[in-house]
Amino acid sequence: MPGPHDVGGKDFGPIDRQDHQRTAFDTHVDVLQQLMGGGGARLYRVDELRRCIESLAPADYHRFSYYQKWLTAMRTLLLEKGLFSRQELDRRLEHMRRQS
Amino acid sequence: MNLSIGDRVRVRAGDPPGHIRTPYYLRGKEGVIVARWGEFRNPEELAYGKQGLPKRTLFLVRFRQCDVWPDFIGGAHDTVSADIYDHWLEQA
Fold first, then answer.
1. Which of A26, A56, A97, B49 has the fewest Cβ atoms within 10 Å of its own Cβ atom?
2. For chain B, which residues make up each domain, given as ranges?
3. Which residue of A has its CA nearest to B25?
4. B1 shares contact with chain A (CB less than 8 Å)
5. Is residue A47 situated within a structural domain?
6. How far apart are CA B13 and CA B32, in angstroms?
7. Residue B1 has what pLDDT?
8. A2:B15 CB<8 A
């Protein structure tokens, strides 16, 4: 089965040609990617990032924004490569939630 | 297998698991090689942190739209082109 990205020939209706406003979140994710990816610390290759984006659950793939897809894929890769564990990530998120 | 510009080729029809760069809608379709972009590490292996060697040759393949879409109603000269690596191609 092709992944959710492989949509050639499917009917999604007209293309939305409106310009998108770049959010602070978008910029933040872009900077993180530049720091961690091939142009920075080389923690992963862009092909790996792409694999993780295209491996998203179809519902998430269609629901997430462009940079939400990137961020989710970056998390997957850092977990895959053992830079931190799921428990460490959960603990950190919980900590941040309590602070906010 | 030595493919070159002008060769008629068929895209492999398989649906293997993993990270695949060949669009699903072109699998099993026949087209003609119109450009040879060069040799590159195989992105389908780079995607898993491997070295992607040996390098693969990347071609631009042109398909007639009426060969791609069974219900195509446009002109017979309408085409669609895609970059496809040699390990996805066979002589047609």
1. A97
2. 8-91
3. A8
4. no
5. yes
6. 16
7. 65
8. yes
Residue A14 in any domain: the answer is no
What average pLDDT values come out for chain B (92 residues) when binned by 10 residues? 93 94 97 98 97 98 96 94 98 95
The answer to the question of residue A55 being in a domain is yes
Count of positions (residues) in chain B: 92
Cβ B11 vs Cβ B86: under 8 Å: no
Question: CATH number, domain at A64?
Answer: 1.10.472.20
Strand arrangement of the beta sheet that strand B79-85 belongs to: B79-85, B56-64, B30-40, B8-11, B89-91
Supply the pLDDT for residue A20.
Answer: 84
The Cα B82–Cα B75 span in angstroms is: 19
How many Cα neighbours within 13 Å face the side chain of B47? Answer: 16
Number of domains comprising chain A: 1
CB contacts of A81 in chain B (<8 Å) are 49
Enclosing domain of residue A37: 24-99
What is the model's pLDDT at position A96? 95
Give the pLDDT score at B12: 97
The CATH T-level fold of domain B8-91 is: SH3 type barrels. (2.30.30)
pLDDT tens string A8-52: 999 889 988 999 899 999 999 999 999 999 899 999 999 999 999
Q: Does residue A17 sit within a domain?
A: no
